[in-house]
Amino acid sequence: MTRRRPTRTHRLPRFAALLALVAIAACDRDPVLIDDDDDPIELPRTPVTLAVRGQGVFAGRYTAEVAARDHWVYTTTWGFRTATGNALAIWDAAGAAPVLRDTIIVDGATTLGDVQISDDGTLLVVATERAGGSIVIFDRTVPDSLVQLTRYSTAATTAGVHTVKLGRVNGRHYAFLCIDPASNEPAQLVIVDITDPRAPAEVLVRRMGNPFVHDVFVRDGLLFTALWDDGLTLWDIGGGGKGGSPADPVQIGNVRTVNGNVHNVWWFHDPTNGSKRWVFVGEEGPGAVGGTSSGDIHVVDASDLADLREVAFFTVPGAGTHNFVMDEPGGILFAAYYNGGVRALDVRGDLSQCEAAARASDGRCNLGLAGRVVANALANLTVSIWGVARVGNVLYASDMLSGVFKLDATPLAR
């Protein structure tokens, strides 16, 4: 691992306006929805545009994932541009524009995937691809001066770690690694105990996914796996009452969402009413960096964990979703939409219920036509937004083409 101190350049880098709310805009009244407690939710007639507070520019490489805590922001890099995507950027976003404080070059990596901050803020974990795949675990006691604790790699990870997520189960800390398929090996999930981050211990290697196990979501002793064409699968790993554990997950349910390509997951816990009904599933379709993208957000009803059902979706014509993050107290889902910028959806209430005009022929509710879009950002710029991270009323959006944007989400504060 080597470090490069920052050089700074500034550039404000187009795209289409929202089409999804044409039907709503023609109405004489604002849409009114009902939440799970039968209380009305008033939504704005027209989505607001989140203002750009500032931009941190990172040239030479494609920027990938973003993670943030307090005013510190971390972005990874992907593929090859004019340089290999093996750089981790550290940004100080205390001011209007993120300022690059340091760059860490991960030797031997050709792409860095996920970057994750532990729930207590003490660790930062980065996934590396391709051959020689690994996770790099850093001590983040000093947020702008990371200290590498270990670089974990085994025969099970060597094809490349595409994503990594962190989670705690029964008092222990785990990293969930989604491994790329190789010429002679299918995709597989690897679970590593990182309770002692200096001495990670492999507890599970299991083949799954068709052709990928792309990402996971971990909460309450349950594991949701995004298995591409095999759909979304739910496992008991210590909280599902089926006797499962991280070392021996037990399957509870599965759903194959429309169009497949199950890419990422978020299980929404609404602190205002205790609802845990909705699971949001990202679909990644074909696209080209800096140009086209495709894929919808699918809403799965998890009222019965053994009988998961898709009930709604959100689509943006000409653009496709990638990663997303939730403001759970506010009930807002923020989604990266590549060339479509960022979209924000109000996801409180019963997402399976909508007026006939907003219901697709297969019975699913179209959240755009149901008036669920409350904000957008960066839709008028030439961007390719990979991911989003939220800290309070600030939203960070990583742009493959230029670096990271700092957006003002105050208009959506409840």
Compute the CA-based radius of gyration.
20 Å
Low-confidence stretches: 5-41
Largest sheet composition: 5 strands, antiparallel
Q: Helix proportion of residues, in percent? A: under 10%
In the sheet with the most strands, the strands line up as 1-9-8-7-6
Q: Which labels suit this protein?
A:
414 residues, mainly beta, Methylamine Dehydrogenase, Chain H, 2 domains, five-stranded antiparallel beta sheet, 33 strands, globular
Task: Report on the architecture of this protein.
There is one protein chain. This protein is mostly beta strands and 414 residues long. It has 2 domains: 1-60 and 257-409, no CATH class; 63-209, YVTN repeat-like/Quinoprotein amine dehydrogenase (Methylamine Dehydrogenase, Chain H). Helix content is 1%, strand content 45%. The chain is built from 1 helix and 33 strands. The protein has one helix spanning 22-25; strands spanning 2-4, 32-34, 40-42, 48-49, 52-57, 62-69, 72-78, 87-92, 99-105, 111-117, 123-129, 134-139, 147-152, 161-169, 172-179, 188-193, 201-207, 215-219, 222-226, 232-236, 250-255, 262-267, 278-283, 297-301, 309-314, 324-327, 332-336, 342-346, 365-366, 373-377, 385-391, 394-399, 403-408. The strands form 8 sheets. Strands 1-9-8-7-6 form a 5-stranded antiparallel beta sheet, with no helix packed on it. The longest helix has 4 residues, at 22-25. The protein is globular and about 55 Å long. It starts with a strand and ends in a 6-residue tail after the last strand.
